[in-house]
Design a protein that fits this description.
pyridoxal phosphate binding; 23% strand; alpha/beta; De-COase2_N; binds ligand LLP; pyridoxal phosphate; TIM Barrel; 9-stranded parallel β-sheet; 12 helices; 417 residues; 8-stranded mixed β-sheet; EC 4.1.1.20; 28% helix
Length: 417
């Protein structure tokens, strides 16, 4: 994170708080977010795209404190479900500052969005237009403003599971087969929606700026004849997870999109929905090293007290991370091994090829950086693990924003005997 430093005693501090003290106070595993870093990224996005045009993709990491922070820094919120909308509203974010996404929104979610008067609904399919027609026939609320999600047929050059722009996708109206045009014609004629713009999202963790430029071009050309006020080009900006990786900044991403749109004569407001690039680098996860199992001639397994339940990304996407000891963040990491969790399966790996200082020992704190996006939010209670707490640190203060789950929480929804 931006505000990380090494204290006189050699320990890592974030936002002026020693990671040793944070672990002692809140226990491990623990997510530590640098609050100033989060705020700086939100401001950078607002600066790069203009007030009202930057939506925080809340799926990356959502709790009331995060929703509020993004909103207070001038972002709107992208929510993908009724649950995300509920948290945003509970945090005090006005519904008109939220946009509802999803390829299979339920009638209940659409009703909720219309009743609360969300800023816009990003309509994904003809079936969804039917559902909105039916709801509006019941007069559930004012005519919703909608964007249509278009699938532009652009490859994002990222992992298959998180690519969404290609024609073979469950998302959106395909441009290539004429669905996109048919959807625009239907929405413009419809009295149950007000079409205010178009949307696309080509994928996530994208490092190739030209992919965004290409999507902007395809969308701008398609949108030109309709002269709609808004064009939202999705999220997807990648972040560096491991040493040697480099990603464009939010500012550079803004420049690429703005240049592309200017060159194409786009007159609409251009919006974006960054998630990962706002929150990923802001956080580290702190674990305690438990069992160390050396297998001579094979490898050493270093087990920590969390795992795939707080970071499923390595298992799901083969994603890489780094690891270090907060007591000696820059120590030479000469011991090689595999950093694994405590779940009951061999796939529960955090780092396939981890490097740690040679003196790493049982009881040491171990941290993995760049875990602020899609870790806590995709976490689970697998093996009835209680999910870790989240603290926001700033100017030497630590603010607990999600407490650790308890065993009682595990039974909170269990009504059977
Ligand atoms: N907008 C839409 C319509 C999206 O579907 C997404 C992400 C975003 C914006 C935000 O994308 P971001 O800026 O965060 O890349 N669980 C995966 C990522 C899935 C992203 C899903 N949609 C991962 O951990 O890599």
């Amino acid at each position: 994170p931006d505000n990380a430093a090494v204290a006189d005693d050699g320990w890592l501090t974030i936002g002026g708080c020693s990671v040793r003290d944070l672990a002692a106070e809140f226990g491990t595993p623990l997510f530590v977010y640098d609050e100033e870093h989060l705020r700086a990224r939100c401001r950078e996005a607002v600066e790069a795209f203009g007030h009202g045009n930057a939506y925080y993709a809340s799926k990356a990491f959502l709790c009331k404190a995060m929703a509020r922070l993004a909103y207070d820094e001038g972002m709107k919120l992208d929510v993908a479900t009724g649950g995300e909308l509920h948290i945003a509203i509970s945090a005090g974010v006005p519904a008109p500052a939220c946009a509802l996404h999803g390829n299979n929104k339920s009638v209940a979610e659409l009703r909720m969005a219309i009743e609360h008067r969300v800023g816009h609904i990003v309509v994904d399919s003809f079936d969804e237009l039917d559902r909105i027609d039916a709801l509006m026939a019941e007069e559930v609320g004012p005519t919703p403003k909608v964007l249509l999600r278009i699938t532009p047929g652009v490859e994002a050059h990222t992992h298959e599971f998180i690519s969404t722009g290609q024609d073979d996708s469950k998302f959106g109206f395909n441009l290539a087969n004429g669905d996109a045009l048919r959807a625009v014609e239907r929405a413009r004629r419809s009295s149950s929606v007000e079409l205010v713009g178009l949307h696309c999202h080509i994928g996530s963790n994208v490092f190739v700026a030209s992919s965004f430029g290409k999507a902007a071009e395809v969308m701008a050309n398609f949108a030109a004849p309709f002269d709609l006020p808004e064009l939202v080009l999705g999220g997807g900006l990648g972040v560096p997870y491991v040493e040697g990786e480099e990603a464009p900044t939010l500012t550079q991403w803004g420049n690429v999109l703005r240049d592309a749109c200017d060159a194409l004569g786009v007159r609409s407001r251009v919006g974006v929905e960054p998630g990962r690039s706002i929150v990923a680098v802001a956080a580290i996860t702190v674990y305690t090293l438990g069992t160390i199992k050396p297998i001579p001639g094979v490898r050493t397994y270093y087990s920590v007290d969390g795992g795939m339940s707080d970071n499923p990304r390595p298992v799901l996407y083969g994603s890489g991370y780094e690891s270090f000891l907060p007591r000696a963040p820059f120590a030479d990491r000469t011991a090689e091994g595999r950093l694994v969790g405590k779940h009951c399966e061999s796939g529960d790996v955090l780092l396939r090829e981890a490097r740690l200082p040679a003196d790493a020992a049982v009881g040491d704190l171990v941290a993995t950086p760049v875990t602020g996006a899609y870790g806590r939010s995709m976490g689970s209670n697998y093996n009835q693990i209680t999910r870790p707490p989240v603290v926001f640190v700033r100017d030497g203060d630590a603010r607990l924003v999600i407490r650790r789950e308890t065993f009682d929480d595990l039974l909170a929804t269990d009504v059977g005997h």
